[in-house]
Amino acid sequence: MNEKIILGLPKGSLNNVKRGNTHQLFVDAGYEVKGYEPGDESYEIEILNDEDIVAFLTRPQSTPVELNRGMVDIGIVGEDWIKEESVLRESNTIKIGDLDYGKTRLIVAVPKDSPYDNLSDFFRANKDRKTPILCFTEYPNLTRKFIMENEVYQEIYGDAVPFVQVRGLTDGDNEMVQVINSDGATEVYIAKGADLIVDNTQTGSSLRKAGLKEIETILQSSAGLYASGDCTEEKLDKAKMIYEQLLGAITAKKYFDVKFNISNSKIEEVSKYLIENKLCADEPTINSGSDFSQINVLIPKSRFPEMIDAIKKFDATSIIRNDLKQLVY
Q1: Per residue in 171-228, pLDDT tens?
Q2: Of 34, 96, 103, which is closest to residue 242 (Cα–Cα)?
Q3: Is residue 296 part of a domain?
Q4: Does 207 lie in the same domain as 264?
Q5: Which residue range(s) make up the domain with 268?
Q6: Contact 73/228 with Cβ under 8 angstroms?
Q7: Contact by Cβ (8 Å): 17, 65
Q8: Total tally of structural domains belonging to the chain
Q9: Of the candidates 304, 307, 329, which has an alpha carbon nearest to the alpha carbon of residue 249?
Q10: How many other CB atoms are found less than 10 A from the CB of residue 234?
Q11: Is 273 among the domain residues?
Q12: Residue 13 has pLDDT above 90, yes or no
């Protein structure tokens, strides 16, 4: 490449072994990565076996900002943050593709003993209150947009724009409904006196532990690879190549590589059975021997127990199951 491509790698939950280990994803995709081990990330990261990539650590909240301004060429970030950045200004980011991890939902939550089942119920019940409604969130733009689209809010407040505060910056003219930026640990604000929160969650367990319940879902999100609209064609081609490598590692996690021996007299029969019952990715690979042959198949992990049961009925022996690191179609 004539120019190096600048890659933003996510800090936080997207590089966490419990939610989305982006470091391991790059390793599985064949990249030698230094300085990005979960819990021990450096702001300067090296991709040792690809000199065309310059990598930096980026916070999920700031990655869309950096992409829009061409500070990074490509970045891995949740779609929730891309949409948060694009509420008030047109975004020039290009989605290269989804990466199928870091899945979350952006939800509205209230105390679990509240009588409200949705946001409309909440506004209806609080229409005559004399003190401001307080909502804390890390997503003030999406939250305000969602509130203003609510029919009951419109009935009560018309086109008035909820008051928003992000640290010392304020905006909006409806101080009876206030959206306050939380900067994390959002669920604790209910205990401190907030009326509702907007937060992301995977399973809802942390919300339930905090004594909260969900009443609305704003959006669903997962991590993806995004490119700046300022990328050259050469950089976009490189971004697509990186995506294919990563996608291959993600796809591989859904399959087992299975080998087994079978009598030559049963090869045709067992192969036909595997194909007709979709117990292989394409068709079996056969390594022929004098009396027995080895059959090799890629099998979706969810179908593996069924396949084992089936091939045993054909007297299969020496069954070996291996994990895959990468699968590129």
Answers
A1: 999 999 999 999 878 999 999 999 999 999 988 788 888 899 999 999 999 999 999 9
A2: 96
A3: yes
A4: no
A5: 255-323
A6: yes
A7: no
A8: 3
A9: 329
A10: 13
A11: yes
A12: no
